[in-house]
Design a protein that fits this description.
22% of the residues lie in helices and 24% in strands. It is of the alpha+beta class and 230 residues long.
Length: 230
């Protein structure tokens, strides 16, 4: 087995951990929306980084725990096609809601494509089986997952995440328009209806530091999302 890639020299974000999660967003467009992973080409990770990715894959696989949600800083951001959650309390609501929405979620494989000092990116394939359907309906989604890492925990055994982005197509997110308003409304409101002691464990995070949503107007290169070959 090859040694983990040396990631010590490449930084993408500020080194100040007190800065809220909004400032740790990785932005990119891709030449295509083909994010199907090839696990045989995955970059090797250190044990601490592998443990972090394992916990994230478990969250995607409808296996939320309080300890796994603690992988995120209180001021984190989660950003995907359907959700924009800008603190750990709202994010906890999302992770603990997944088993209520999906009968199962299976990880079909992933490929780490970036292993920088403060950023891990991997192509991920996840199959989701809906719970509230008359017949078992399974959808498989390939996406690029970007984990922007907390500067204060980079060298620890329990690395935490400042910004978690999940992109399922070639364009990035504009953070504007009706689609974004729905994403934010969904995250703001789902947590209010979660009767869960696990979610309540993160209620204090409602007061975590936040910045204004960064609006780009476009998910293309002109929206500060340069083309990257991953």
């Amino acid at each position: 087995m090859s040694a983990p890639q040396d990631h010590s020299g490449t930084s993408n974000f500020t080194g100040d951990s007190s800065v809220p999660g909004e400032s740790f967003e990785a932005r990119q467009t891709a030449p295509s929306d083909d994010y199907k992973p090839d696990p045989s080409k995955s970059l090797p990770l250190s044990p601490a980084r592998q443990s972090l990715v394992d916990d994230v894959i478990a969250l995607y696989s409808c296996q939320p725990t309080v300890e796994r949600v603690k992988r995120y800083t209180p001021d984190c951001v989660y950003d995907d096609q359907f959700v924009y959650a800008n603190d750990r309390y709202k994010m906890a609501g999302q992770w603990f809601a997944l088993p209520k929405l999906f009968k199962q979620s299976i990880n079909e494989g992933y490929q780490v494509v970036v292993n920088d000092k403060d950023l891990i990116q991997f192509k991920n394939e996840q199959s989701w089986t809906f719970r509230l359907m008359p017949k078992a309906t399974t959808t498989t989604i390939n996406a690029l997952v970007s984990l922007s890492l907390d500067p204060a925990t980079l060298d620890s055994d329990f690395i935490r995440i400042k910004y978690h982005k999940d992109q399922a197509n070639d364009k990035d997110y504009s953070h504007s328009g009706l689609g974004f308003n729905f994403k934010k409304w969904q995250a703001d409101n789902v947590v209010k209806h979660m009767d869960s002691e696990d979610v309540k464990a993160f209620e204090a995070d409602k007061g975590a530091g936040k910045e204004e949503v960064k609006v780009y107007g476009s998910g293309k290169p002109e929206g500060q999302a340069p083309v990257k070959e991953l």
